[in-house]
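Hi V.,

Quick status before I head out on leave. The structure for the redesign project is tokenized and pasted below; the design run finished overnight.
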């Protein structure tokens, strides 16, 4: 029984994770619809926050998670007050090529990265704009969720989309870099460019290197992406085959046990005689 549970855990856990993430993405859209007047204010404050931000990120040698090095000049709303919703979701990332549709949260704490993607504090908020660079991080290779597991399949020319408080921002990948364990990488704004960098670890299961996928804003936003915005996140059907398979193994195991048991008893009785 324990062996069956261990064997089927990754499949069922991944399904529940996808279901939960899809529910959060759907909740995010509903919450924005219910607070429409506040959306414009939130976006305006986010733009102001980015303008006051000295944005940057440092990926130190041997580190798996980047550290935000930017700071906000003057007095303004705190980072956690920006793009705030009751569910905690600040944005949504879609990468059609690899089937990614995930919520983005504030910060990169471990518990955050187990629920979805994390926006790196100290880098631009994911609302776009000239001379901005937002950094989004995520795990790969988790038994319970795919997250950024297939990010290594992304190549220059591929696209991804952010949906932030009703804004639809599309990006085309311009650079894919694998950073060696002993390398230090700095990520800063580039004058006039609207950039987003996605970061995860590699190789799968080893996690000694980091993959940096950078995309530059496509303007205007492609009609296809505008049309897809706000659509529900697709969740595959529950893997009933896994339950059926597990049930079959249990039945087969029970059959073998009860078939062999009388034979063992007979052998034991003979030895005692």
């Amino acid at each position: 029984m324990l062996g069956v549970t261990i064997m089927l855990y990754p499949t069922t856990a991944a399904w529940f994770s996808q279901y939960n993430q899809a529910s959060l993405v759907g909740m995010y859209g509903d919450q924005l619809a219910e607070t429409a007047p506040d959306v414009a204010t939130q976006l305006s404050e986010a733009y102001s926050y980015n303008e006051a931000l000295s944005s940057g990120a440092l990926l130190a040698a041997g580190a798996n998670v980047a550290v935000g090095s930017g700071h906000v000049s003057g007095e303004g709303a705190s980072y956690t007050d920006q793009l705030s919703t009751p569910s905690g979701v600040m944005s949504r990332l879609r990468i059609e090529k690899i089937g990614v549709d995930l919520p983005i949260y504030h910060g990169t704490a471990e518990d955050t990265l187990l629920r979805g993607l994390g926006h790196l504090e100290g880098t631009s908020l994911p609302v776009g704009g000239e001379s901005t660079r937002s950094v989004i991080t995520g795990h790969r290779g988790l038994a319970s969720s795919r997250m950024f597991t297939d990010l290594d399949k992304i190549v220059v020319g591929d696209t991804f989309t952010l949906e932030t408080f009703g804004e639809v921002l599309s990006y085309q990948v311009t650079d894919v870099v694998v950073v060696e364990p002993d390398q230090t990488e700095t990520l800063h704004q580039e004058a006039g460019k609207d950039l987003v960098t996605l970061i995860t670890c590699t190789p799968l299961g080893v996690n000694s290197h980091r993959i940096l996928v950078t995309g530059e804003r496509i303007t205007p936003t492609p009609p296809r992406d505008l049309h897809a915005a706000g659509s529900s996140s697709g969740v595959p059907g529950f893997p009933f085959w896994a339950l059926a398979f597990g049930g079959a193994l249990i039945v087969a195991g029970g059959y073998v046990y009860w078939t062999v048991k009388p034979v063992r008893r007979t052998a034991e009785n003979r030895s005692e005689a």
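Above is the designed sequence. Helices lie at 2-34, 36-52, 110-113, 223-228, 240-272.

G. will cover questions while I'm gone.

Best,
W.
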